[in-house]
Structure formats: C-alpha cells, structure tokens
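Tokens for Malonyl CoA-acyl carrier protein transacylase. Go.
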Amino acid sequence: MYSFAMLFPGQGSQYIGMLSSFFYKNDNIIKQTFKEASHYIKYDLLKLITEGPKEKLNQNKYTQAAILTSSVSIYRLWNSKNGISPLLMSGHSLGEYSALVCSNAMKFSDALKIVFLRGKLMEKTSINRPALMNAIIGIDKKIVQTACAIYSKKQVVSLASINSHDQIVISGDKNAVYKTSLKCKKFGAKNIFNLNINIAAHSELMKPICEKLNKILKVTVIRPPKIPIINNVDVKFENTGKKIKNALIRQIYSTVRWQEIINLIELKKIFMILEVGPNKILTNLNKKNKNFISFSTNNLKNFLIAFKKINKGSYEKKQKNGINYRG
C-alpha cells in the first residue's frame, strides 16, 4: 500500500458519455448514486450524462451537480472495494464540495442542494453581463496580472485559477477577458483556449451571490473532515464548520491557488495522486512534475489500474479471499 492524495475536479470536466464504462451492470453503486442525486435535485442526471443534450449538461446547475455526483460515486466504489484512504484531499473549486462529502464533513444531499443553487446563482450573473473564462498557457502569473491590470480599470478581469506555473485562468467581463488574452499572446503566451464555462467564476462578478449562498451554508451542518482537506482560498487545513463555510463563500470570488496546493502536497512528502472524477484534467496538470505518480479514475480501466497500484501489498491477499475487483 502507498500513501497518496485524492483530488477532485471542478467545472469543465463534464462531457456526454462520462463514466459510461462503469455502467455495464443494471444495478451498481455508480448508478445508485446518480439515482440518489436525481431524487434530491428532481432531475434525471443519469439520463443527462448518458444522452444529453450537451447544452443542458453545460448549464451550471446541472454541470455542478453532475460532477459532484460523479466524484462521490467513484469514491463510493473505491470504498466498496476496501480501497485504502488517502492521507489528504483537495478539490479544485467545485471539487472542494466533493472532498467535503467524501471526508464525511458534509452530507451528500446537502452538498447537492448547495452546488445546484450555486450553479443557478452563478449563471444568473451572466444573463445581462456576458462573461468569459480563458486559460493562458506558457507565461507566469506576474505577466498575466500585468495584462489584466491594463483592462481591469473599467471592467472586471482577474486571475481565476493558478493551475500551474505556466497555466493561468482569467475570468471576468467577456470583452475584458478577450482583450487581456490578446495582450497575453503579445507577452509570449504559447496558447489560449476558452474554458467550457459560461460564467465569470472566481472573479468579483460573483460577489453579489455570496449573501444567498451564505444563507444556505448557515443552516448546513459541516463537521470536521475525517480526512484533512486543503482548501482553495487559503491553502490551509480547516477543522471547524465555521471556518470551512467562510472559505467556501470566499472561494466563489477568489483565485483558486491550485499550484500552491500541489506544492503543499509535495512538501508533505506525498508523491502519489489519485484524481477522482469524470475526466483527467488534474492528472494532466501534474504530467510535467516528475516527482508525482498520477492516476485518474475517469473510466473503469483506469480505476482498476489505480486501485491495484495504490493498494499494492494488500491486493493479492484480497483476491485470494474472493473479493471481486470488476466494479
């Protein structure tokens, strides 16, 4: 067995057909989790991720609920096979809610209600104020900040997420983000691509929704996580419901400090990472770091590979005892 960190992806990792390789049984833990989620939000999430339409899946309220449910269902499958627990967890933006559920700090039903509302509120901000999120590849955050400063005097554009030393996401008013992206290209950016997100997440445009989000968080029970979680806004481990809620409110308009989170994991001498979710965006971010061995769980094959590698040492013993590892 190996010590590892478990990471949960955020918005943008959704696609039609995600987790389809897990659905070879008529009745399994993945499907059960989706049915449970569908009941809470009163919408058939399982049908949505398998059949679409894509436009519906990309609506924030459904996107966030679908990604949360995907991560939780895969984590439940991991536990059902007696997979070992990680030393710590972290989630990218929305993924922080997945981490809170999987560490037993928050009920799945409560998290679903919150992220469903969170998605609706975030989407409303862009109805009369077009927003954009772009990833800037190949230059560091200081250069991107310089570009943002040029166009942030009259409109909003700022750093939404520092994913790595040379992948920075900017967010804000559509026109300002577009102009800032062009300026970054002139400053040496190798590539710029639009994220599959139609809101200005992690920017000041999200501040007006904090009051409504805070109301639902106030009446939500959040316990100390059983597995430590590194949060997005402070890159800290919090152990009280009050501090966790405060961080979740600030997270919605603050920069996701993902690179610092990865640095802290490395500082803790954890060099194996498991991404639990429908894609492998976070896994791909770690490819350049030779100190890490990264696994994804985006399909059944990768899940089984990761399970065998991480649980090495106890795997053969459990096989002899007749435990079925076919999901």
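The domain at 5-125+205-320 is CATH 3.40.366.10 (Malonyl-Coenzyme A Acyl Carrier Protein; domain 2).
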